[in-house]
């Protein structure tokens, strides 16, 4: 089964730029279905990016982030060929992780 | 003699109107609903039913189920008017569309 | 003598006018195509021809910038991967989609819809996908989203860049009739709001309807199926046609109704020569 995380990390002279797309319903818990019942909250709570044994980025997400969230950021450091590990955990305790090589 | 006739006719008319406004019944509702349904069916054959017609029919049924035949009949009459308008729209548009074609 | 001359001249003028009028109003798909194309290139002289397939992004610079930023990691990525899996997975009888389509189903999107002269109807890609499933004893997909969107996304992707090549066999009057019916559907007003497709996509491309920027009708199907932010997911041509109907307060027809297939035939023919850009993403 394909991972729910797509990631691309590109190392520049001093910083590495990371883009990631995650597949997740990100239900806020405030939306009602066709029958008028509330769709329970089901969204990612934390996302963590690690490389070289260090966490370089942590995101704390909640109901305001939309479905299939996309994130783009840069961090200082990072070398071509290094591993970048991404993990998300959602409010139901489910988790997914993937590792990609920095290009 | 004429004046008395007029008064009697007038009173009779008032009485009819008063009776009509006082109580729509299941029978009068059913008749109005059947007419509306028939018109909407014709609109369906012309492949141009309006969503608002369908909503009015639904509302009419719901009001009738709750025993509110005045409201139900009003909605059924509105549904019939909407359905007839959608039929008229198709009959008109079937002739007018060529004028809109980009030349 | 003078009267005779005047009569002759009047007759000649009349004849001349009638001939001219016949030429101007001769309605053929080819003439329609030219008029349609010229309408958009004249209205938007700065838009490169192939850019029209990008819909609202060809009309609004701000939207375009956001779109380009997103295309690095397009939201249809997941559906595309899923579509490839579905496309390659064998049916219970061992066959695959490749057995139903020319060229094994790869790089053929630009030929759809086509007119089937055995059944005398327009065959769209979505219809063909479900016909393939049914022929092989599988359950057909819901036309609007999910698996249908995923499979058609993959098939569109294998044709990216290829110019639309829709054929209207001139020797088959039923094909021309289907085309003409599609054209009628496009221009005929419907729904309580009394809009036709042309009301938005011919009269007002680049303008806004509420918060949305309207796409030009030229090439409007080239990016299908799309991941639409408004839908929070993928949608097919069937989904777009039915939702456009309900948006003008018209009860949608059934997905892949003959009217919709004829409409797709007309719009796709109008886009001949323009590249397949699907799958796409839209606001």
Automatic annotation (TrEMBL), chain A:
InterPro entries: Ig-like_fold, Ig_E-set, SoxZ, SoxZ_dom. It holds the Pfam family SoxZ. Residues 7-100 form the Sulphur oxidation protein SoxZ domain. This is Sulfur oxidation protein SoxZ.
TrEMBL record, chain B:
This is SoxXA-binding protein SoxK. Residues 1-22 form the signal peptide. Keywords: Signal. It comes from Afipia carboxidovorans (strain ATCC 49405 / DSM 1227 / KCTC 32145 / OM5).
